[in-house]
Amino acid sequence: MKRREFLKTSAVLGAVSALGAGKESLNRTSLAAAEGTEVAVAHGADFGKATEKAVALLGGIEKYVPKGAKVAILPNSQSKNPGAHTKPEIVRTAIRMCQEAGAGEIACLSWLPEKYWEATGLGKAVVEGGARLRIIDLKDESLFRALPLTRGKVLKEAKIMTPFFEYDVFLNLPITKDHAGNRFTGAMKNLMGLNSPTVNRFFHTGDFKTKPDDIEHLDQCIADLNLALAPTLCIVDATEFLTTNGPFGPGEISSPKKVVAGVDRVAIDSYCTTLLGMRGEDIVMIKRGHEHGLGEIDLKKVRLREVEA
Amino acid sequence: MGMRLAILTLAVLLVSCGPSADKPVAGSDDLKTYLPAEKELGLWKARGVPQEFRGDDLYIYMDGGAAIYREYGFRQLLVQDYADPYGRSLTLEVFEMDEADAAFGIYTFKVGSQGKRVDLGQEGSLEDYYLNFWEGRYLITLTGFDREVETTQRLLRVGQLVDSRINGPAAPPALVGLLPGRDLISSSVKYFRGPLGLFQSYPFTTTDAFGIKAGVKGDYSAGYSFYVIEYETPERSLERFAAVAKSLQEDPKFKNFRMAAKNTAFLEDRQGRCLGLRALRRWILIVLGPISAESAASLLDDYETDEE
């Protein structure tokens, strides 16, 4: 139970840390720094196998999911269009690995209606994999817990779906892709999937017509939101993704056939920008995340390991 | 600027050749009017009822993806899925924008450079697994979920059926005609109505230093791009030029910044591409590409000479 308590503190109470003026959040960052920033990349046409290999490079799922732990998973199911959602094979494999590690309840949390989960095939992957699909009514604000963000520069309060706080471990399972708002989405931006859509709307509608800093506004909001939430592990779908017309599509597709895993979401996002022909420094969100102390932007300082799956 | 005149002429021709006279006029804002009838679809059947989204409800449908549509000027969307007995499916999206310029703009935003032109609406483009066309204030997007010939044919067929129901003659915005015509790759034209579209084209600045309300970009066979950003007055253009120049000068991702005149600046990006900017009357002109500053200056000078 000691391990479980530790994870609970680091993963979920990372959110509560916002209530405590960032003290716990600083502890969390120090822990990540002590472990060193490591990003694992597995390449192969079998995306499930690539998922296993990437996590194995990090030391295996057992390192992150203790026996009996309740696990919350967050895939991206935003659009059924090709290259716009996390591949079901990756989600299925992540669930199976958690089960093999002896996890307790595994649940996929979302405020997106069930039809999105059906259309992307992700609902089937979750349920057939033996996990629970928990859809939160997005219109019921009472189902979201307010978290003041004292260190937030633009976003002063997050509203995280309340069921999230029932879980010990948080697996962030985004897809990396183009985004018409800031040119990139990945591990950091996926956390908007746990935040109230009413608050998220503020990210995108800082009024594009009048405010001079709107593009930075979205990116700063995402970096601020990340102060409230610390994924235990990120497993990012970089197998096939939108390079234009993201995040919804349809658009042009790139197929590097890679699965990227790690704890440091800033480093992961920085790596994934290279798959879209950019650098971490090109994306304001990643720079702001780094400035918040959430992770390493400089890939030269990251232990990057790649393997064929 | 004879070639620019040619583009304007082409735009006029597009209007006159676009919708045929026997097309019914769709006067209603009920987008269901544009859906194909069941008997026209053969083995393909509508799956579920159409979904409709108005204004900010677009965020419900596509979350953050809605922002770019809102920037161009979005009014409403209708979505209808179709499927055949063999498991193939497609999705039809009918976007009604505020006006024809907005529909043209979001069309240029969405189409890729590799798409195959198809005879739908004012202009249409078929890509790997999807197609887009615009007509009047409407943008139609059809997405298949495989690359089978049957699915592609069905995309085209449904596109034709929708096209036959829309009668919205319109020309591309006049601003498009201000792009230099010589060596322009016509499929590369992008029309902007705000900072997101421009930023997606090239990340000049993460602030809205341009204060852009309308702009256009084209790529040229020599490898450079040419932008024309339009303002209400020459004074506004000069004022925005100064703000943009300051922003670029202070941004560490650019180097070798120099002001060649009060209204002209040159610099280089991290990939070694040259940027040449000039405030000219109501516009800011930008040349961007793997060319020398001298070449960029020459292109800007030629444009100015042609305008005179």
Give Rg of chain B in angstroms. Answer: 21 Å
Beginning-to-end CA distance, first to last residue of chain A: 33 Å
Report strand order across the widest sheet of chain A: 4-3-2-7-8-11-1-12
Radius of gyration of chain A: 17 Å
Which term fits the overall shape of chain A? globular
**Termini separation of chain B:** 9 Å
CATH topology of chain A: Rossmann fold
Total discrete domains of chain A: 1
Number of helices of chain B: 8
Shape of chain B: elongated
CATH class categorisation of the largest domain in chain B: Alpha Beta
Total beta strand runs of chain A: 12
Unreliable residue runs of chain A: 1-34
Superfamily (CATH H level) name of the largest domain in chain B? PknH-like extracellular domain
Structural class of chain B: alpha+beta
- The CATH architecture of chain A would be 3-Layer(aba) Sandwich
Count of DSSP strands of chain B: 14
- The CATH level-2 architecture of the largest domain in chain B is identified as 3-Layer(aba) Sandwich
